[in-house]
Structures are given as C-alpha cells and as structure tokens.
Amino acid sequence: MAVVAEKIEALGDRAPSFGDWMHDWHLDSATNIVNSRRHTYFAEVAAGAEKSLLDNSEIIVETRVSYKDIAADAIDSAPVWHKRLFTLLCHPSFEKLSRVLKERHVKWFVLAVDECSELNSARFAPY
C-alpha cells in the first residue's frame, strides 16, 4: 500500500480526478514483463515487505503463537496474532494510502492484487 500511495502522490496534478489510478501498474507488454513498470513496482513492493519483515523480525518472533488448539479470540490464538501482524506491518501503509486518497477527494478506491502469491517467486522471474 505504501508503494501505491507513493506512486499516486508522485502523479501530483497529473493524477486523474476519477478513473484508473493504477494505470502504471498495468502490464505494458506480455512479452517483455521484466521491463514493465508493473514489474518494477512489484519489485519495490517485495523489497519494502522484506525490509519490513527484517526490521520487525524480533517482535514477529517474540509474539508468534504455537498454533495450539485454543479459542480463536484467546490472546495467543493465530487470528489475534494475525491482527497484531497486520497492525504492525500493514496498517501504517493503509493509513498512508487513505490519507493520499482523501487529499485527492477520492470516495471509492478498489485495489486487487492478482499476483500476491508471486511476490517472492524466483525474484520476479518472468513466466
């Protein structure tokens, strides 16, 4: 989300008042994936995610759960840990994107990532 927010911010006055805010994330050419903006942006996302995981590895390990059979709302449950991880790793970037969009008076913004399972796949090797 941080990279998305940064790319929208960088558009400045060129940002659309409505329409395709994610145009630069489209695949420019299916035959030249490595040189596409999309590939470059996903590389930024992966690098940022890796840095965030490394920067927070101590707290991630300290707070992880053993996945024992406990109630879903118990303090040591996997769902509670996942919420803590989201708050630590993702929430600041969602807030940044929200701020950027509100500054541009955007009421609705839908984002779908179709390649999230590919982010750490052979360091973005093309298919």
Summarize the helices and strands and which ones pair or pack.
Blueprint: H1 2-11, H2 37-55, H3 57-63, H4 78-103
Based on the structure, what is the oligomeric state of the protein chains? single chain
Order of helices and strands: HHHH
Number of strands: 0
Q: Give the distance, in angstroms, between the N- and C-terminal Cα atoms.
A: 25 Å
The number of domains is 1
Helix content: 40-55%
Tally of individual helices: 4
Mean pLDDT comes to 77
Name the shape in a single word: globular
Q: What about the largest sheet? A: none
Please compute the radius of gyration using only Cα atoms.
17 Å
Strand % is under 5%
* Spans of at least 5 consecutive residues with low confidence: none
Structural class: mainly alpha
Features:
49% helix, mainly alpha, 127 residues, 4 helices
Question: Can you describe this structure?
Answer:
The chain is mainly α and 127 residues long. The protein has one domain. The protein is built from four helices and no strands. The longest helix is centred in the C-terminal third of the chain and has 26 residues. The mean pLDDT is 77.
Structure summarized in a few sentences:
This protein is 49% helix and 0% strand. The protein is mainly alpha-helical and 127 residues long.
